[in-house]
Amino acid sequence: MSNRVDLPEKKYDGYIFDLDGTLVDSMPLHFKAWRKALLEAGAPESVFQADEFYSCGGKSATDVVKFLNERYGLIMDAEATAANKRAIYLELLQTEGMQPIKEVMDFVYSLGDAPKAIATGSALPGACSTLKSAGLEGVFELILTPDDVKHGKPAPDMFLLAAEKLGVDPTKCVVFEDALPGMTAAAAAGMDCVVVKRPELS
User: Fold this and answer.
1) Mean pLDDT of 181-186
2) Segment 64-81, tens digit of pLDDT
3) How confident is the model at residue 137 (pLDDT cuts 50, 70, 90)?
4) pTM passes above 0.85
5) Kind of pairing, strands 173-177 and 192-195?
6) Cβ atoms of 185 and 159 closer than 8 Å
């Protein structure tokens, strides 16, 4: 897909990036991992189709399972199912690899040493494995995950913490996101948001 993002012309004091679907094209792999993990946890085939998957973008894996249990009256073990999903994703990553989203990464490189961070719904081991697979290891010094805050996306906590650690005013930061929970979190943090368009899933 060409023109995945309309890059900002305005200069900001801090730049915060979601990871999956924003810096790397990992959403199809995450979707595949979720489908397998949910089936193994006893969820019906009809649960978590593409639209619902995207609506949960940026949420922690445990929160996704809790959400699905509540919505569909299921009794999946949230921690075990989330851990299995992460394990399946890492296996897929080994066999299928990962590609960066070129337009976004070109912009990241153009920023030079401007303050920048990743704020992702993924757990840190998975995030680091994704970055390594995409050849982006070491590009970002600051990587924040739901484990670093009390509330993950759509709460603004991760973005506010990123601004604090970067030493910049939250209102002078911009967030790059591909999913609604992250966009909601950016707005709640008082930050501008650049939307990265998503690919279609099969």
Assistant:
1) 96
2) 999 999 999 999 999 999
3) very high
4) yes
5) parallel
6) yes
pLDDT digits (tens, 9 = 90+) for 81-96: 999 999 999 999 999 9
Q: Region of 58 please: left (phi>0), alpha (psi -120 to 50) or beta.
A: left
Which of 59, 64, 68 shows the shortest CA–CA distance to 154?
59
Angstrom distances, CA of residue 40 to CA of 62, 66, 82, 122: 16, 16, 11, 20
Active-site choice (18, 20, 25, 157)? 18
Q: How far apart are CA 113 and CA 149, in angstroms?
A: 26
- Whether residue 6 lies in the annotated active site: no
Number of Cα atoms under 13 Å in the Cβ half of residue 104: 30
Distance CA 182, CA 192 (A): 12
